[in-house]
TrEMBL record:
Membrane topology, from the record: Multi-pass membrane protein
Name of the protein: Protease PrsW
Subcellular location: Cell membrane
Pfam annotation, one family: PrsW-protease
GO biological process: proteolysis
PANTHER family: PROTEASE PRSW (PTHR36844)
Transmembrane segments: 6-27, 39-69, 113-133, 145-166, 205-223
Coiled-coil residues: none
Main localization category: membrane
Keyword Transmembrane: yes
Keyword set, alphabetical order: Cell membrane, Hydrolase, Membrane, Metalloprotease, Protease, Transmembrane, Transmembrane helix
One of the record's GO cellular component terms: plasma membrane
Length: 236
């Protein structure tokens, strides 16, 4: 009908609005000192760009693992989701996060790391979402709006918590604890991401139940944690 937006525009909006909505929600939680808009945009762009090396590394590693382990086995699914996907995606997002924000003068409060990590992850999720929605349509947009997009945001929240704690330890001269928190900034999101994808990849009904319970528990835990960090926000 005349006057209606083209189908591609609708699909783009369906792909981009959920991640941008979550980015705005997290940004608004940072009540003590808002982060520079330019820095947030830069981190969003970094997140978009990380999809390229992530796709290359994932394809390479999955092919490599597939040459050693039969793709029909549970072991292959486990390795694929935790290492070929979870570790790679969270690893490239962590790299972009650290390069883009660690030494920035605006990184001066403990909640800042969460905002930065979410910005990178939302950039990644938005780019990924556009590709999926353009290929599979509106139904995929609806499913991903309540699963994958919040998932990326939640993984980023946990990355950002450890990232901020590491920065706090560096400022206060505790270098051994700094290293521990930086490792956790990759390790915790990787484990959450890997388990999420592993559950989603399994075909048995029990895994669907586990997947749904895991999503709800993760959402509740992340909501509580991010609000706790906002209340306890303090200078580094």
């Amino acid at each position: 009908m005349e006057g209606e937006p083209p189908e591609m525009t609708i699909l783009l909006l369906a792909a981009l609005l959920p991640p941008l909505f979550l980015m705005i929600k997290i940004y608004k939680l940072d009540k003590v000192e808002k982060e520079p808009g330019g820095l947030i945009v830069k981190l969003l762009i970094f997140g978009v760009l990380t999809t390229v090396p992530a796709a290359f590394l994932e394809g390479f590693l999955i092919s490599l693992v597939g040459g050693v382990i039969s793709p029909k086995t549970t072991l292959f699914i486990l390795v694929e989701n935790f290492f070929c996907v979870g570790l790679v995606e969270e690893g490239v997002k962590y790299f972009a996060l650290k390069k883009g924000s660690w030494n920035h003068p605006a990184f001066n409060y403990t909640f800042d790391g969460i905002v930065y990590a979410v910005a990178v992850s939302i950039g990644f999720a938005a780019a990924e979402n556009v590709l999926y929605v353009m290929e599979y349509g509106m139904a995929t947009a609806g499913v991903r709006a309540v699963t994958s997009i919040p998932g990326h945001c939640i993984f980023a929240i946990y990355m950002g918590i450890s990232f901020s704690l590491a920065k706090y330890c560096e400022v206060h001269g505790n270098l051994p604890l700094r290293k521990k928190h930086l490792r956790n900034a990759i390790r915790i999101p990787m484990l959450l991401h890997g388990f999420y994808d592993f559950c989603a990849s399994m075909k048995e009904p029990i895994w669907t139940i586990i997947f749904l319970v895991f999503i709800v528990a993760l959402d509740v835990a992340a909501y509580k944690k991010v609000n706790e960090m906002e209340r306890q926000d303090r200078p580094l």
